[in-house]
Amino acid sequence: MIFEAYTHRRQDEQGREIVLHGRSVGPVAGHPIVMLASLGRPGSDFDEVALHLAEAGYRVTLPEPRGLGGSTGPMEGLTLHDLAADVATIIETQSRAPVTLLGHAFGNRLTRMTAKDHPSLVSRIILLACGGRIEMPEEARNALVNCFNKTLAPDEHLENVRYAFFAEGNDPAVWREGWYPDVMLMQSSAVRRTPVEDWWEAGGQPMLVVQATEDAIALPANAHDLKARLGERVTLIELSHAGHAMLPEQPVAIVSAIRNYLGQ
């Protein structure tokens, strides 16, 4: 399977140009899945999962956020509504609506915002590492911030990646790279500028939540809270031996969960 690159240009409400870049893989006629990456991270985090799904007949699209991988546009004063408009454009121009929209970590917020603002474009939602209302411990927050600190010594940086993102015994070296501070600041600001109530319940679509049991950032209590509040709309699967990174830790289990859910 070969990833196919795309580039699309649009203008925002102020007439400013936004360039949206990304890649797709899998048969064009396959069930469409669009995947949104974690805070300050690239779409390539999904590559292994995307390739497995493409081989199973799905069409997977991996957008890059503004400021990363050829995607550009205004980076200040944004809300999740603005970033959801980018995702909606990708669905309309590079995929086939309605799509299954999948978000990892920060991407789970953007997934829910897109589904709320553009419900006709999204048929189902899949959330990996879904944080939201229940805050992470201070130690985990500090480690998360330090993952984007380029002044740290390599060993110190990797220890912060391990603490924040990986379960005990899993190798954090696979995520030694791929940290984009400017993108992280833009996305974090957009979250702060958007009330939780705007995106939390998404657009009414059914959703699969895959929750790592050793996640130090998106605590498992968030997934259980979401299930308790939304009831039968939510299918909850807990994933052992995985932390917040999840994708490089348990790719086969994640693919299995996605395929089982979409096959129902």
Gist?
With 264 residues, the chain is of the alpha/beta class.
Q: Would you give an account of this structure?
A:
The protein is an alpha/beta fold and 264 residues long. It has a single domain (4-134, 180-263), classed as Alpha/Beta hydrolase fold, catalytic domain (Rossmann fold). The chain has helices spanning 47-55, 80-94, 106-117, 138-146, 154-165, 181-192, 196-199, 220-230, 251-263, and strands spanning 4-11, 17-25, 32-36, 59-63, 99-104, 122-128, 207-212, 234-239. It has an eight-stranded mixed sheet with strand order 1-2-4-3-5-6-7-8, sandwiched between helices. The longest helix has 15 residues, at 80-94.
CATH class: Alpha Beta
How far apart are the termini?
A: 26 Å
Low-confidence stretches: none
CATH H-level homologous superfamily name: Alpha/Beta hydrolase fold, catalytic domain
Q: Which structural class fits the helix and strand makeup?
A: alpha/beta
Overall morphology: globular
Second rung of CATH, namely the architecture = 3-Layer(aba) Sandwich
**If you compute it from the alpha carbons, what radius of gyration comes out, rounded to the nearest whole angstrom?**
17 Å
CATH-defined topology:
Rossmann fold
Could you give the order of strands across the largest sheet? 1-2-4-3-5-6-7-8
User: What composes the largest sheet?
Assistant: 8 strands, mixed
Q: What integer is the average pLDDT? A: 96
Number of strand segments: 8
In terms of DSSP E residues, the strand content is 15-25%
Question: Considering DSSP H and I runs of 4 or more, what fraction of the residues is helical?
Answer: 25-40%
Count of spatially separate domains: 1
Question: In DSSP terms, counting alpha (H) and pi (I) runs of 4 or more, how many helices?
Answer: 9
